[in-house]
Amino acid sequence: MFATPNIALIALGTSFFLAITLATRLHFKSVSMSAGMMAISFLSACGICNFCWQVFEAVNYSAVSAVLICTAWLLFISAILATRSKNLKLAFDHHGTPQEIVTSGPFRYLRHPFYTSYVIFWAGCALAALNTAGFIFPGLLLAFYIRAARSEEQFLEKSDLSAQYQDYKSQLSWPWSRP
Predict the structure, then answer these.
(1) Whole-angstrom Cα distance, residue 119 to residue 8?
(2) Which of 168, 169, 111, 121 is nearest to 141 (CA)?
(3) Residue 177 domain flag
(4) CA neighbours within 13 Å on the CB side: how many for 166?
(5) Under 8 Å CB-to-CB from 103, ≥6 apart: which residues?
(6) Of 59-63, 78-82, 105-109, 122-126, which range is least confident?
(7) Does 153 map to a domain?
(8) Residue 179 is assigned to a structural domain of this protein
């Protein structure tokens, strides 16, 4: 039966999804969307539809799912705040020249806080949906996020910021925490 916890979890999950969607358009400064980013967008749309449908039917592990989604929200917001004056690009967009390495906010502890927040979010969705599709979409997205992160690192390593990035990278293990 559709109950209040289900509505709250759906609202929490869809609000995070909408925040990511808005950030794609308003926060990140890319002229166009790469094929990789289009694939991420498509898989994300399928994933959120599956999440909403499954949670509408019956919610699983709602408390754990809610904690994971709230954690993703906090990390995402802190990454947005740390980069609001930067000209970050969308995943797989390597046009132009990087201007600086962001090392403040969550970037002090994570090399990829945006991707990490997305992974935490999709883990919460997978636990709530608890069906095959609920794990397939996050698994595919994880593969894209890893590929995007590695691609961004290679782009930075070939840029004028290579030495600065190598120094930053040496302080953080991939992609989490200080060694």
Answers:
(1) 20
(2) 121
(3) no
(4) 7
(5) 168
(6) 59-63
(7) yes
(8) no
Helix (H) or strand (E) holding 117: helix 113-129
Identify the pLDDT of residue 174. 65
Can you tell me the distance from the alpha carbon of 68 to that of 70, in angstroms, rounded to the nearest whole number?
5
Nearest to 28 by CA among 166, 159, 148, 175: 148
Q: By residue range, what is the domain housing residue 138? A: 4-171
Number of domains into which the chain is organized: 1
d(CA 98, CA 112): 16
Gap between the Cα atoms of 105 and 179, Å rounded: 18
Residue 87 in domain: yes
The amino acid at 147 = R
CA–CA separation, 83 vs 28, rounded Å?
A: 9
Q: What is the DSSP letter of 110?
A: B
Could you report the per-residue pLDDT of 23-59, keeping only the tens digit for each? 988 898 888 889 999 999 999 999 999 898 888 777 6
> Cα separation of 127 and 120, whole Å?
11
The two three-digit tokens of residue 102, written as one number? 């962001």
Average pLDDT over every residue of 104-130 = 93
Whose tokens are 């925040």? That residue is 19
Length of the chain measured in residues? 179
Distance CA 159, CA 162 (A): 5
